[in-house]
Every structure is written in C-alpha cells, then in structure tokens.
C-alpha cells in the first residue's frame, strides 16, 4: 500500500463580511473524511467538480496542507511532519503553479533540481535523456521558462517532477489549458509511464478524455466525499449509462411517437434528426419498431459518454 | 460630458479596488504612525530647549512630521503602477485598445486611490499625532484650501514620475533599479527624512529649482505650517507639473512607437 | 555534491543579473538608501552638535552598530518579505514539495545580491566609528564589538521572519512588518534618550530595540546610562537576540501549519 488515508479531512475557517464591519466566522469542510488505498503501480484518476476537494486532498497527500482530521500515509511516511523525506520520494506537478525557475533556461532548472534532490549525476542524466526523447524537449531546452508555451512548459514540469525517480507522481490538472497536440503528448507520456508499473500515478483532472485514455481506476469526489471508487466500466454500469440511437428521417418526426423501450431525448433539424435513448430495448428492437413507422434515411448508435455519466453522478450526489 | 463620466467611473473603480485592501490599509497606517513617533521625537529632541529647529517651532515640527506621514500614502510616490508589470508581460497592448488612452486610464484610477487614501491613510497618522503631540494649526483660513490644492498638485507630479518609471520598462524591462533611485531621491530630497531647511541655503535652492522632489512633500507641508512663500511654492509645483505632463506625453509616444516597431 | 541552498542562491543571482543596467542601478540605490539614513543622523546632529546628550563620536558608534546590523539581517533574511507573494499566489506549494527546509529555500531563492553593497558600507561606517570613538579596549570589549552587530542582525532577522510569518494568517498585512524592521532600523540609529518616556518603555525596551545598538554602545564606551539601566544589562544583547530568534522560529513553525494554499 503506497497511499493510505483514513477519514482524511480538511476544514477551513472563512470569514464572510456581513455589513460594513461585522464578520461572520464559518467553518467550511473542504474534504470530509476520505478513505483511500492505492497500491504501488496504480494509475488513479481523482475527479470531481470545481471545489469538490480534489486539490485539497492532493495537497494533504504531498505535505503542503496540514490535515484537520484523519490519518494519511504516503510511501509509509506522514506527509507534513516528514515533508522533506517524502518530497524525495514523490514527484508533484501542479498544473497552474510552476516548479521551474522563471528566468532560467529549462536545462538550468533541471540541473538545479539535481542538486535540490541530491540525485547522482548518472541517474539524472539517464532520466533526463529518457524524458527528452519521449517529450521532445530538445527544441526548447535552452529557452528561459518564461518564454515557453504552456504545452512546452508542462512537458518541462513533468520532466522536473520525474528527474529524481519518484515512487509516486501527483498531477493536479496536468492538461488544463493545453492545446490538443500537447494534451496528446502528455497523455501518451503518462500512459507509457503508467504502463511500466514502477511509478504510482495519481492525477486530478477536469478533462474526461484524460480519464478515458489513462485511468484504470477512478475515484470521484464531490463535496469532500468519495462518491465512486472503481473502474470506468463499473461507473457506467452502476450509474445507468445508456446507449442511444440517432436517426435521420425523410419527413419530420410524427408527434407522439414513442418506441417501446426507448425515450426521445432530442429532436433537431426540423424534426428530421431524432435521438432516442435506450431504456430497456436493444438498438435493433428500436430500429425494427421505427422501420414500420417512419422513413429512415440513416442511423447511428452512440456509446455512453463519460461527460454525461459524471454530470449525472455529480447531480445525483447533491 | 462622456469623458467626465468615464473618468468618474475609472476613479470609482480605483477607489473600490483600494478599499478592498483593508489589512494593507491598517498595516500601512500602523507603519506611518510608528515612523511618525520616531521622527517626531527625534526632531523635538533636537529642537530641545531652544524650542526651534531650522526655523520651525516644536508644534510646526510635529505637524510637519505627522501630516507628512499622512501624505506619504496620499501622494503615494513609492507605490508603483502596474504599468511596468504589464509592459513586461505584454498585457500593455490591451491598454492601447481602450478608448480612454493609457495615461487617462491610469491617472483616473490613481485619483480613486487618492480619494481612498485621503479618507484612511491621511487621517490615521494625523489622529495619532493630535492624540500624543501638540500640533500646529494654520492661522490663516485661506491656508486650508491652498494646502488642499498643493496636495493635489503634489500627487499629480508624483503620478507623472511613477508613470515615467512605468514607461521606462519599455527599454529596461526590470524597473526595480530606477524605482529604488526614485525612492532614494524622493526621501532625501523631498523633505521626508528631514525638513529641507536643515540643509544649507544653496543646497535647498538647487533642490527646489533643479529637481521636482521638494514639490511633492516639502511644498504642501510648508504651506500648511505657514512657512516660506506660499505663492512661490505653488508656482514651483505648477511648473514641475507642466514639465512632468510634457515628459509623459513625449516618452509615451516614443514607447508606443517602440511597441509598434518591435511588436511587444 | 555542492550544497543545494548554495546552488539555489547562485541561480537566483544569475537570474537577477540578467537585467544588467537595472541591477547596477539597484545596487547603487540600495547602498545610497542606507547612506541616507546615516546622512540624516549627521545632518540632525550638526544642528546642535549633540543628540540626546551624546556627542558625535558616541552617536557615530550607535549609528554604526545599527548601520551594520540591519543590512546584515536584510542581506540574509530580508527577502523573506516575499513570503506574502508566495502565499498569495500559492507558489509556496512548490516550495513545500521540495526536500529542503522551506525557510532556507525562500531565503536562497530570493537572495538579493544588491544588498551586499549596504553591508560593505555599514561595515566601513562601523569600523570608522570603532576607531574614532576612543574606546578603552579590553578583551571583553573586543568580543562585544564583534558580537554586537551580529546579535543586532539576528534580532532584526527575527523581526523579518516574524513579520513575514504574519502572512500565513493575514495575507495583505506585509507592510506591518515594516514598522518594526525599517522602523526599528531608524529607531536604533539614535540614542534612545531622545524618545518620549512611554514610547521608550513600551517600544524601545519592551520590544528589545534598546539592545541592538544603544546599550552595547554604552558598554563599549564604558559610559553609564543616563536612563539608569544597570551596567551588566548593556552586555546582554546576544541573549536578547537568541530569545528573539527562538520566538521567530516558533512562530514560523506555527505559521506553516496554517498555510492554506489558496486557489482551487
């Protein structure tokens, strides 16, 4: 067990201004008792809506924030009291907060990190060579970080987090704001890293494509509590993800027509394109029913979309 | 009419923005009060039994120090504009796209800040001074409005200086050095560290004629304690303001040209 | 393998010296500002030939200790002021995920070489003061002459750290620390006999400022205190400095646990 939390909680005291001078003191629970067990080598997606407590959890796991309740162990260490020792064994990428030295060339940041983490030169060089190849760093290695594009910087951040060979890699929104190509590069790299099985990866994201491509295990958090812990398939199964059939018609959809075992969820293009969500019938059964009632021009079957599932999950947990 | 409304809206926004920094206001005022005590005790101790220092009596010295501490945040010569930072990041391009023009934009926002500082940072040290020391109050009623005019002029002159420093970022990128120089000269040559009449007469003359610094602190304070020639002091302020405005316009033109040529 | 803190410091110096003109101006201005404090003291001294009952040589010794102690502290830990910037932007996260002491990292990462000029200048002033003060040298006085500015620096350094730590609770409060750091520098540059009675008791003795320059200077000069403090107390500045450092360390540890990592 490389990460283990029991009842991990974080409360913040906030002051809200009431009127001109009076302030109201309120205790807000950002994380309210999270139990999490992660095995070595897992690639875990930690997702939830804004303000759900994802980043707060990650910050408690990395020793940035002091928990207000529960227990937490990462690599067998207590993050806050043993912060320095833990820092040597984990890598952290906070998507919106750079770890690199703004005014220095990327290569200098890497050289500096070798000393910060006291990594033997040969090990450092080997890991850097690996990252340079996989992440295409060469073209901007000598540029000051402030001049890098967001995608380039993120590739630099990933490298920076890995140069000391961490056992666990924490990524907070690693793909946020990236263009499509950079996203793919980052995902490809993480998939490769996760596939090797010696690095445990925990990532938070808003980008559900990250999860579909990368995460075998998914932990969904909302309002500071875990609302799902399992695979993506299990999430679909337990939250009734449904396939749908989209049909294009020659004539507008007749009012009141509802096939057995399906519901009409969208009517577009002046009634000539209709989406039917399957609620019991198979796609074939629905098509068979329709064939007798309307003139079909074209049809397609859509697989359930994780966006929808998660959106449904969030609204259900409210 | 439209311009006035835009200016008022900008000033109101500046006022609101600064009024959200309440902790900073309290912290800043505390610092002003601490320095007020220090400088006031030191000057009064020197005035000592003779009862006067460089032509100021004890009450005038106390007023000089405490109102000076209040003016510090109002004139705000040390608070740099975001301009330099925006030049460095390239965001300054969006300032060019606004209809009001960057000088007006920053000036109006700064006037909002000026208003907020008058209500808070100006009054706090003066209240402390009144509480612990005997302050000099002007004899002539006319002194009050003249002092107010002088404070506005001082603020505008200081604004021109800060704006020029901001513009210098187009050439220097990092303006910290220039800022430090400005802070140094402002403190030493402006009357903050010591009243300028402590200096020999020739040195005072050089400072008043060759530099703008006395017009931003010493000038309004001298008017308030009714020392020296009020008309001349105001004239010096007007001249330096005219020079400052002209310099801003000129340097700004050069800066924009540079921006257009180099593409940010 | 070289010390990681040293590496961080060197990297920071390299980053800063990228903008050469600005860096040069910055260094010069930083040195000038310290000089301005000393000049102010002597300008005021020149008015009556004494300050608070102390002659020029004695005042020079007091000012000299302060003029070396403060820049030493400022060079070593003055940049901790930037903590509030790290806390506000959440950049402190990046500091905490590295395997080094957070405090030392911040000091190394924001090391400001431009402050070095002030130390050299302060050292010169102090050495001159020691020579001209006419001290009756004994082994104990030699030791104190070395320890006094160091103890003063530790004392000011503790104030810097304690003041910056407030940012963990009160983000916009940065300037509050200035009352005690920069204010303290001014305060300790003068004979404390100049201050008002209540202020002297509460701030000067109560917060320990008397131990920075005034009391050690009395011990070096072998002069009894006109304020009547016992002679043994004049030798106690290292003890006070150690107490201050312990307090600041405890505050820092508590503060770090209050870090809230704003944003998301």
Radius of gyration of chain C: 19 Å
Q: What best-fitting shape of chain C do the alpha-carbon axes yield?
A: globular
SSE order of chain A, as H and E?
A: EEEHEHEHHHEHEHEEHEEEHEH
Q: Helical element count of chain C?
A: 13
Helix content percent band of chain A: 25-40%
List the helices and strands and how they pair.
The complex is a heterotrimer of chains A (318), B (264) and C (264).
Chain A: E1 3-18, E2 22-38, E3 43-47, H1 54-61, E4 69-74, H2 83-89, E5 90-94, H3 106-116, H4 121-135, H5 150-162, E6 168-172, H6 180-196, E7 200-205, H7 208-214, E8 217-222, E9 225-230, H8 232-238, E10 244-249, E11 262-268, E12 273-278, H9 283-293, E13 296-302, H10 306-317
Helix pairs in contact in A: 4-5, 5-6
Chain B: H1 2-19, H2 22-47, E1 52-53, E2 56-57, H3 58-75, H4 83-89, H5 92-97, H6 102-119, H7 123-132, H8 143-172, H9 176-189, H10 201-210, H11 218-224, H12 230-262
Antiparallel strand pairs in B: 1-2
Chain C: H1 4-16, H2 20-48, H3 56-77, H4 83-89, H5 92-96, H6 102-109, H7 116-132, H8 139-165, H9 175-180, H10 182-188, H11 197-205, H12 214-221, H13 237-257
Plain-language structure description:
The complex is a heterotrimer of chains A (318), B (264) and C (264). Helix content of chain A is 34%, strand content 31%. Chain A has 318 residues and is of the alpha/beta class. Chain A has a six-stranded mixed sheet, with helices on both faces. In chain A, strand 8 and strand 9 (225-230) form a beta hairpin. In chain A, helix 4 (121-135) packs antiparallel against helix 5 (150-162) and helix 5 packs parallel to helix 6 (180-196). The two termini of chain A are 31 Å apart. Chain B has one domain. In chain B, 51% of the residues are buried. Chain B has a two-stranded antiparallel sheet with strand order 1-2. With 264 residues, chain B is mainly alpha-helical. With 264 residues, chain C is mainly α. Chain C has 13 helices and no strands. The relative contact order of chain C is 0.15. The model of chain C has no long low-confidence stretch (mean pLDDT 88). Chains in contact: A-C, B-C. The interface between B and C is large, with 42 and 44 residues.
């Amino acid at each position: 067990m490389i990460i283990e939390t029991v009842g991990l909680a974080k409360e913040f005291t906030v002051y809200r201004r009431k009127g001109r001078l009076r302030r109201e003191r309120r205790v807000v629970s950002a994380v309210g008792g999270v139990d999490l067990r992660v095995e070595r080598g897992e690639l875990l997606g930690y997702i939830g809506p804004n303000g759900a407590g994802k980043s707060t959890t990650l910050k408690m796991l990395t020793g940035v924030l002091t928990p207000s309740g529960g227990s937490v162990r990462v690599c067998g260490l207590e993050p806050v009291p043993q912060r320095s020792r833990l820092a040597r064994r984990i890598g952290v990428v906070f998507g919106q907060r750079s770890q690199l030295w703004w005014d220095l060339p990327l290569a200098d940041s890497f050289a500096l990190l070798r000393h910060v983490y006291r990594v033997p030169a040969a090990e450092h060089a080997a890991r850097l060579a690996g990252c340079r190849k996989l992440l295409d760093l060469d073209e901007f290695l000598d540029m000051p970080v402030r001049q890098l594009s967001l995608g380039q910087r993120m590739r630099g951040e990933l490298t920076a987090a890995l140069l000391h060979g961490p056992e666990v890699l924490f990524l907070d929104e690693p793909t946020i704001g990236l263009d499509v190509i950079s996203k793919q590069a980052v995902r490809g790299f993480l998939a490769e890293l996760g596939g090797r099985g010696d690095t445990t990866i925990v990532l938070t994201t808003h980008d559900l494509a990250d999860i579909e491509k990368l995460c075998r295990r998914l932990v969904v958090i909302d309002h500071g509590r875990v609302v799902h812990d399992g695979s993506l398939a299990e999430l679909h199964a337990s939250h009734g993800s449904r396939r749908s059939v989209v049909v294009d018609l020659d004539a507008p959809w007749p009012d009141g027509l509802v096939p057995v075992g399906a519901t009409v969820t969208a009517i577009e293009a002046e009634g000539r394109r209709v989406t039917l969500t399957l609620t019991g019938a198979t796609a074939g059964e629905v098509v068979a029913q329709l064939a007798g009632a309307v003139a079909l021009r074209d049809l397609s079957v859509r697989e359930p979309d994780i966006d929808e599932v998660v959106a449904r999950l969030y609204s259900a947990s409210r | 009419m439209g311009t006035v409304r835009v200016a008022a809206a900008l000033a109101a926004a500046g006022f609101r923005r600064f009024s959200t920094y309440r902790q900073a206001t309290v912290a800043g005022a505390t610092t002003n009060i601490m320095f007020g005590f220090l400088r006031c005790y030191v000057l009064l101790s020197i005035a000592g039994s003779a009862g006067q220092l460089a032509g100021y009596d004890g009450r005038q010295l106390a007023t000089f120090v405490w109102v000076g501490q209040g003016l510090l945040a109002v004139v705000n010569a040390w608070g740099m504009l975001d301009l330099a930072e925006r030049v460095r990041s390239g965001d300054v391009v969006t300032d060019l796209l606004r209809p009001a023009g960057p000088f007006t934009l920053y000036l109006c926002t700064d006037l909002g800040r000026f208003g907020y500082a008058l209500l808070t940072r100006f009054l706090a040290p003066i209240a402390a001074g009144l509480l612990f020391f005997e302050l000099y109050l002007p004899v002539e009623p006319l002194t009050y409005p003249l002092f107010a005019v002088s404070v506005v002029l001082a603020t505008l002159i200081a604004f021109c200086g800060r704006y020029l420093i901001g513009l210098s970022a187009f050439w220097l990128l990092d303006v910290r050095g220039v800022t430090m120089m400005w802070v140094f000269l402002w403190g030493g040559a402006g009357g903050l560290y010591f009243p300028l009449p402590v200096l020999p007469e020739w040195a005072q003359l050089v400072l008043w004629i060759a530099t703008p610094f006395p017009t931003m602190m010493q000038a309004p304070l001298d008017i308030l304690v009714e020392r020296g020639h009020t008309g001349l002091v105001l004239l010096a302020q007007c001249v330096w303001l005219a020079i400052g405005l002209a310099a801003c316009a000129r340097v700004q033109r050069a800066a924009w040209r540079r921006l257009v040529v180099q593409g940010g | 393998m070289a010390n990681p803190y040293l590496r961080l410091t060197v990297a920071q110096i390299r980053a800063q010296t990228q903008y050469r003109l600005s860096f040069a101006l910055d260094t010069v201005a930083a040195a000038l500002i310290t000089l301005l404090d000393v000049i102010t003291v002597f300008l005021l001294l020149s008015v009556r030939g004494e300050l608070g009952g102390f002659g020029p040589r004695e005042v020079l010794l007091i000012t000299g200790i302060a003029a070396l102690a403060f820049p030493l502290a400022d060079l070593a830990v003055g940049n901790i002021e930037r903590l509030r910037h790290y806390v506000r932007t959440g950049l402190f996260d990046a500091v905490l995920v590295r395997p080094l002491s957070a405090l030392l990292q911040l000091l190394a990462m924001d090391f400001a070489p431009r402050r070095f000029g002030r130390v050299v200048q302060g050292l010169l002033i102090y050495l001159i003061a020691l020579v001209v003060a006419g001290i009756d040298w004994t082994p104990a006085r030699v030791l104190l002459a070395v320890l006094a500015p160091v103890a003063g620096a530790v004392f000011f350094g503790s104030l810097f750290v304690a003041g910056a730590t407030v940012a963990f609770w009160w983000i916009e409060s940065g300037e509050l620390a200035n009352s005690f750091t920069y204010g303290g520098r001014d305060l300790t540059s003068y004979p404390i006999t100049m201050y008002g009675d209540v202020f002297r008791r509460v701030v000067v003795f109560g917060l320990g400022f008397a131990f920075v320059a005034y009391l050690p200077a009395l011990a070096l000069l072998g002069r009894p205190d006109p304020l009547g403090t016992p002679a043994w107390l004049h030798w106690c500045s290292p003890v006070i400095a150690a107490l201050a450092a312990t307090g600041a360390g405890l505050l820092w540890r508590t503060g770090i646990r209050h870090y809230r990592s704003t944003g998301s």
